[in-house]
Amino acid sequence: MKAITYSSYGTPTALELVDVPEPKVGPGEVLVRVRAAGVNPVDWKLAAGFLGHVLEVRHPVIPGWDVAGVVEAVGPDTDDYAVGDEVYGYVRKEWVQLGTYAELVSAPVRTLARKPATLTFEEAAGLPLAGLTSYQAVTRAGVSAGQTVVIHSAAGGVGSLGVQIAVALGARVIGTASARNHDYLRSLGAEPVLYGDGVAERVAALAPEGVDVGLDFYGEGGVELLQSIVRPGGPVISVADNDAGDKGAKHIWARSSATDLTTLAELADTGRITVKVGHVLPLAEAGRAWELSAAGQARGKIVLTV
Q1: What is the set of domains in the chain, with CATH numbers?
Q2: Residues in the chain, pLDDT under 70
Q3: Which residues form a coiled coil (predicted)?
Q4: Which helix (H) or strand (E) holds 113?
């Protein structure tokens, strides 16, 4: 099968489209014919070696964790899915090696759910990691109806989903963003405030009664900003600041969860969340996709089609 690989830590230019053996399919796994693979910043950060101290990486690597596709085969003692089922998932395994930038990927059923029926394969491939990150941040913070939530970096891929999920739970959402994204945030149900100096004062003017929860999807001072805004004792969670725990906040990583993926699919199919796809590129242009991701200028998800 065809797959994108890299053999050592490096830059996007190190990516190659090559022939590799088809993956084996063990008990509790299915073989997925990949229709689309989502691109996330963690993909190129892993390839650059930034997370080698945290995650086991075995070269050569097929990158990618997000997938949407069709079940091609099922492993022994696996009756969760049948051949032909449309699925999507966050296929994060025990180590980084056999990812989703390929024609086929073997996926533990714990990492999959049925694809949202209302989403295209490209849209579905953009949902798993960003959706799980935002959903788990919102739910682990205990967001509930009637609360006021501030989301820092609310217009990005993760932040925009966090806005929609919190709104779906009945929360009032205030989102920080650049001015060009304010109309976009309003369309998602959030009240936008401008980044930069004075943002805490602008939030206080919108919510003089106080803020219950702070969610940081940015890093670089986001935890400290939210701690200055959220009422004493209110949770502050960051997905971007590895040192959040040392600052009295909580740092979380997305966890594979078939249950949470099913919930996200239900939210999508009932129109409560949408996935914005900014760029769709063929698998062979994975390097270009990484350049776009690293530049940070793309609004919406970057997706590779296979």
Answers
A1: 2-127+275-305 (3.90.180.10), 137-251 (3.40.50.720)
A2: 297-298
A3: none
A4: strand 112-114
